[in-house]
């Protein structure tokens, strides 16, 4: 349909632009025939531009409407049209049916179009009911000094099939739809503050148990004196703790305000710092432990 | 019943006496994790999973921490030292 509309636009445009051109496309031998179901000719009408048919032609349901024409020479050369089409304009409906002529023979210049009204591919509009159409032949091409050919052929009455006519689609009425009101999901009912508060306290309570249990273990820390022998060790140990804390902080900030890429950048930096400083601090710790225990490989027991 | 009591007492005594303090440290941590997980689960049973993501995050964290702590305990245990020759206590 779009193709047809575009083709029409091209032809109409050519018509408009070629007002001053000298001559029309040399179209002659225009013949309109009606063939019956057995493809035998029932009517043949020779048309002469610009005379239209004086009386309407009748095409019965199931017959074939055939239009043929021949395009002559222009300036001693064969003129080949770019587009050729036949337009059926219903007299009681603002809707055109445009049939494109498939091809025009290069050698003979003959073009023809057959519209089989019985065919399932024929325009549905021919099958709604019996109506009269105005026929128009349009031929145009890319030859500058030729006016596009537009020939009002006259009227044709196309009979709708007596049985099983096509159902005319209902006209689509575009009206305002009822307004859509967005429905927000109601807020989730929150649990009683007392219950949630109690459980918050309960969930935090194991910290106390942990502190209590650890305090009863009599854990011996490494004497600060040993650590303080080397300022680099202190620095690395501190850096390690800071980097671990920073990683936790970064994860917390990601949890609170979800920003993935800054989080990844920060994690990338801090994890490198943590890896380097941790390796240094822990290997220093191991060295001191081995010094203390005299390089005993069973040092795990000492812990 | 008395036998159970005796066995339990002996178990506790042996644990307190024989377990290295580093393992006790990890055990205390595991108890803490376990309790936290249980309390969260109880809360969900009572109050429902409304902040479902919060429950999932909290509970799965406790499970994961527990598993990691258990692994650390296995590796730190001097009795398993023969199986983890390359892992130092500071790893």
UniProtKB/TrEMBL annotation, chain A:
Localization (cell): Endoplasmic reticulum membrane
BP-aspect Gene Ontology terms: protein N-linked glycosylation
Record pathway: Protein modification; protein glycosylation
Organism: Actinomortierella ambigua
Name this polypeptide is given: Ribophorin II
Domain Ribophorin II C-terminal: 184-289
Signal peptide extent: 1-21
InterPro entries: Ribophorin_II_3rd (IPR055374), Ribophorin_II_C (IPR056790), Swp1 (IPR008814)
Transmembrane segments: 190-214, 234-255
PANTHER family assigned to the protein according to its UniProt record, in alphabetical order: DOLICHYL-DIPHOSPHOOLIGOSACCHARIDE--PROTEIN GLYCOSYLTRANSFERASE SUBUNIT 2, RIBOPHORIN II
Keyword Transmembrane helix attributed: yes
Protein role: Subunit of the oligosaccharyl transferase (OST) complex that catalyzes the initial transfer of a defined glycan (Glc(3)Man(9)GlcNAc(2) in eukaryotes) from the lipid carrier dolichol-pyrophosphate to an asparagine residue within an Asn-X-Ser/Thr consensus motif in nascent polypeptide chains, the first step in protein N-glycosylation. N-glycosylation occurs cotranslationally and the complex associates with the Sec61 complex at the channel-forming translocon complex that mediates protein translocation across the endoplasmic reticulum (ER). All subunits are required for a maximal enzyme activity.
UniProt GO cellular component terms: oligosaccharyltransferase complex
UniProtKB/TrEMBL annotation, chain B:
Protein family per UniProt: Belongs to the DAD/OST2 family.
UniProt function note: Subunit of the oligosaccharyl transferase (OST) complex that catalyzes the initial transfer of a defined glycan (Glc(3)Man(9)GlcNAc(2) in eukaryotes) from the lipid carrier dolichol-pyrophosphate to an asparagine residue within an Asn-X-Ser/Thr consensus motif in nascent polypeptide chains, the first step in protein N-glycosylation. N-glycosylation occurs cotranslationally and the complex associates with the Sec61 complex at the channel-forming translocon complex that mediates protein translocation across the endoplasmic reticulum (ER). All subunits are required for a maximal enzyme activity.
Pathway as given in its UniProt record: Protein modification; protein glycosylation
A Pfam family recorded for this sequence: DAD
Gene Ontology process terms (BP): protein N-linked glycosylation
Lineage: Eukaryota, Fungi, Fungi incertae sedis, Mucoromycota, Mortierellomycotina
Name this protein carries in UniProt: Dolichyl-diphosphooligosaccharide--protein glycosyltransferase subunit OST2
Main location: endoplasmic reticulum
Subunit note: Component of the oligosaccharyltransferase (OST) complex.
Regions crossing the membrane: 29-48, 54-74
Cellular location(s): Endoplasmic reticulum membrane
Membrane topology: Multi-pass membrane protein
Organism: Actinomortierella ambigua
């Amino acid at each position: 349909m779009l193709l047809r509309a575009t083709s029409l636009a091209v032809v109409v445009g050519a018509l408009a632009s070629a007002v001053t051109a000298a001559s029309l496309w040399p179209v002659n031998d225009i013949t309109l025939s009606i063939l019956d179901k057995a493809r035998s000719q029932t009517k043949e009408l020779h048309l002469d531009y610009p005379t239209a048919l004086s009386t309407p032609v009748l095409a019965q349901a199931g017959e074939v409407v055939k239009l043929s024409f021949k395009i002559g020479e222009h300036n001693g050369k064969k003129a080949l049209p770019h587009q050729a089409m036949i337009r059926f304009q219903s007299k009681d409906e603002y809707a055109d049916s445009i049939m494109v002529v498939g091809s025009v023979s290069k050698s003979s210049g003959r073009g023809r179009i057959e519209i089989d009204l019985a065919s399932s591919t024929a325009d549905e509009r021919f099958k709604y009911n019996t109506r009269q159409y105005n026929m128009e032949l349009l031929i145009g091409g890319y030859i500058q000094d030729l006016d596009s050919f537009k020939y009002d052929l006259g009227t044709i009455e196309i009979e709708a099939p007596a049985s099983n006519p096509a159902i005319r689609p209902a006209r689509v009425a575009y009206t305002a739809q009822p307004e859509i009101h967005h429905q927000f999901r109601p807020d989730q009912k929150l649990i009683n503050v007392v219950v949630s508060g109690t459980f918050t306290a309960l969930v935090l309570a194991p910290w106390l148990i942990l502190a209590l249990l650890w305090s009863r273990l009599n854990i011996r820390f490494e004497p600060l004196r040993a650590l303080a022998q080397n300022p680099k060790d202190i620095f690395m140990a501190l850096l390690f703790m800071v980097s671990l804390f920073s990683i936790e902080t970064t994860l917390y900030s990601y949890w609170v305000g979800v920003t993935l890429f800054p989080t990844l950048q920060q994690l990338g930096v801090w994890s490198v710092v943590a890896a380097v400083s941790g390796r240094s601090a822990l290997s220093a710790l191991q060295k001191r432990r081995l010094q203390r225990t005299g390089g005993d490989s069973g040092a795990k027991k000492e812990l | 019943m008395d036998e159970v009591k005796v066995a339990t007492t002996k178990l506790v005594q042996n644990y307190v006496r024989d377990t290295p303090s580093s393992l006790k440290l990890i055990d205390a941590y595991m108890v803490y994790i376990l309790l936290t997980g249980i309390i969260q689960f109880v809360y969900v049973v009572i109050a429902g999973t409304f902040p479902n993501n919060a429950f999932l995050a909290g509970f799965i964290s406790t499970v994961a921490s527990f598993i990691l702590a258990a692994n650390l305990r296995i590796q730190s245990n001097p009795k398993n030292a023969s199986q983890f020759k390359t892992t130092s206590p500071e790893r």
